[in-house]
Amino acid sequence: MATVSVAIPYASKWYFEAALRGMRAAAAEDGHELDVWVEAPGPAARAAVATLIEQHLADSACIGAIAVHFRLHGDQVGRVLRSGKPVVLVGGRPDELPVVRLDDVEVARRAVQHLIDLGHRDIAHLAGAVTDPDDITIRADRVRGYSEAMRDAGLEMQASVRASAFDVGEATSAALRLLSADERPTAVFAAVDEMALGVLDAARTLGLAVPRDLSVIGIDDHDDSAAAGLTTMRQSPEAVGRAAVARLLGRTDVDDQVMDVELVVRTSTAPPPGPVAARPQRGLKRGLLDRLVRRR
């Protein structure tokens, strides 16, 4: 039986589990199976992934490889393509290899625009931490989408970016600090749903009613999001996984496949309380924003 080598940074996180389900189902349709290996994210991860893909592709049973949230570039691309077998990336920006991805700038822009359309002007962004080793370009692109939406609405001076790991617990702590401030926002856009769930936890701890006192939106439609009433930009990791295998097997020939995302409105977003014009303005934390949007 032929195998598809899959490099992944985590074995048990929601997104990656779902993406693998999609890959397995798509590969099985042609009688193939996955050879999945976990490479812990970190500074040396990309080089390690390139080396292991090269080794796996040398095996006659391996028909191609997929790297999930690992961006290969330069001589790494040449090395993994030396075998003549296909290599597909999941996540990030189009480079020298076929990629299946979200348009993270546009998805973030749409999420923020939903809040703006409701009447919110004081919108904070809970973004991924600069030090997150598993982030390809998600953090920077979603900050960019947020900042562009705020700028286009004339709200630059009210923009505020706070950093957190892509984790409910860390996001709860960051949101407690954000929402305890005297000039707290009326809405929070979180980079992923796990972080948005942390914002909801923080709001409950502080006695804030959602959405009366605070609106919250995330990205993903995590398995826990519907029960929490979280408004989100829904994507399908399973569909991402299927699309990556389809490209690898030659069922499609699109080298930059941007997946669809749908706004799902639930009970965590509503118009802001009180007159919008009465809300105080805050200066943009430019240093942090610049660090977040810098492309890796």
Automatic annotation (TrEMBL):
Keywords: DNA-binding, Transcription, Transcription regulation
A GO term for molecular function: DNA binding
Gene3D superfamilies: 3.40.50.2300
RNA-binding listed as a keyword: no
A UniProt-annotated Pfam family: Peripla_BP_3
Domain Transcriptional regulator LacI/GalR-like sensor as annotated: residue spans: 112-269
PANTHER family: LACI-RELATED TRANSCRIPTIONAL REPRESSOR, LACTOSE OPERON REPRESSOR
Stated name of the protein: LacI family DNA-binding transcriptional regulator
Organism: Amnibacterium endophyticum
